[in-house]
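Schema walkthrough. Field components (list of strings):
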Amino acid sequence: MRLITSYFIGLIFGIGISISGMANPAKVLNFFDIAGTWDPSLIFVMGGAVVVAFIGYRIVFLRKAPVFDAGFQLPTNTRLDVRLIAGSAVFGIGWGISGFCPGGALPALGTGRIEVLIFVVALIAGIFAARGLIALGAARVLSGKT
Amino acid sequence: MDTVFTPWQSLAGGALIGLASTLLMLMLGRIMGATGILAGLLSTSSFQDSGWRLALLLGMISGPLAVLAISGQMPLIQVPVSTPMLVVGGFIVGIGVTYASGCTSGHGVCGIARLSRRSIVATAVFMIATGLTVYAVRHLWGA
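Field assembly_structure (string):
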């Protein structure tokens, strides 16, 4: 049941991404190109998603636990650290270069377009590269302490 | 490349994204973040969670096919970006979202809906960075 439910939630997300325009780099890049061929559509995507999720979460959090788990698994970190801010800035640069973000590209794999696959492979390589860098940093901190 | 302004379609799509985020929290108690779902699948330590993540990913990938089945048309994807720039951009996005622990869906939608301070800051930072990058690429560099 948990798997079937997850599949259908993913499907709703994928349909939403597909019709919203978030999976279309030309539309994403035009949203940010206020000085050029501006297309404000994406503000409606963000607006619609945030409003629905904001109201939805308020209702869901009236429950003590989700249907299929003993508790809600929410992020506990509240620090505004360098990693968050620098990481977000780096993400923005990559998004501005490619026009794809992970949430747009993963559903777009279903279109079978080679550009999407190229982006996702590079994305995965970037995730592993960052993990390597983080592990290196952690190793350096550990060796510095001993 | 010009694109057509689609406020109603985009609003409907956004509402479905918000609905999916709400349902994932209601049913599994998880944040609907593409970064978290992909990163979780690429991690051996969260093996017991890979089942629902894989099912969710398969659902996401079925999205465009469902749109094709309903409307008779694949969702429009126009890529005004060269292949090398897709590779560079994708790699940079991968590094950024790993350090930031989230992207547009996790921080931009779910995090803001939870009024998370980290997500609000993250979203503001990446929106500004993306805007500046697009300006630099299109108007300074002239691509």
